[in-house]
Write the structure tokens for this entry.
Amino acid sequence: MKIIGTGAVHPTCAVSNEMLEKFLDTTDEWITERTGIKERCVISSEKLEDMAYEAAKRALEDANLTAADIDFLICSNVVNEYVTPALSCIIQGKLGATCPTVDINAACAGFIYAMDIADDKIKCKKAKNILIVCAEEPSRMVSWQNRSTCVLFGDGAGAAVVTEGDELKAIRLTTSSLTEVLYYQRHLEPTPYINKDENFEPLVMKGREVFKHAVSSSCKDIRRLLSQTGLEPNDIKYYVLHQANKRIIDSIRNFLGVDESKVPHNVERYGNISSAALPALLDELNRGGKLQKGDKLVFSAFGAGFTTGACVIEWAK
Ligand code: COA
């Protein structure tokens, strides 16, 4: 499998730390020091499906393909306005594609899970060109009165087109059921028969535990992949890591012993946009002319579940 196109869209409403100071007991200094985040873009007038469609269109244009060339569409999403139909069905209609589609929810690691599914479909010749769209609005899962969570997240969409090739060198997924450290329950309609306690609350997160799991699992995944592919940490051009917190990114970089220049980041501008973070950062590198054919890239992400995913891929464009 190889990546032949990328695209991304961020909402227009940029919320700075100073804007949060106006209604939360927080400071720019605290947020910057603990997370590296200076601002995040959150949905205001946009609809997530429109952003997802636009990111997908940009990725298709970058790949020189049209919607008719796509054999399968995977959308990675945690929440959106619809429980059903799947977001992928809505995106398919907007694009005018006719291929089958599916939504997956592997939280912030969703892009790597989608790549793994795409790789299998391509290998068994069920599809040639696959569109992956990661579209997320975590700003709608948090309480905006909770300073511990709402400062961390932003919304956005990132997409990639993948096709047949030898460029995916190794991929690794893990899931370990650790549900109490990070969860968000869906509000369900009442019925005349429900007689159990149901407390639907905004996103719950034990930040310190998530931090520790994130750093240790990402380092473990990356080390395994490097040893599997016989690569040294410095053979990698860029480590495209999940953009949750600059301190998490720095800790992973320090454990791996690689230079800052190898670990690009945009968390300071967008906050944590869940599974859209990896394709959006990749798109920034691609469109910014930072990638050359043959460059080796590591992707690594972690999220609620606890899920992790990582891969080594050679840049093919
Ligand atoms: N502004 C000011 N103070 C804040 C604050 C904010 N926005 N958020 C929390 N605090 C306070 C807490 O209330 C606490 O105060 P207390 O000591 O009086 O109780 C204090 O800061 C320390 O809180 P703590 O949670 O221990 O801080 P921390 O150093 O662990 O940083 C996170 C908190 C959330 C930034 C950090 O744990 C983190 O990034 N975890 C990972 C989260 C993540 O990546 N989630 C998504 C995974 S996909």
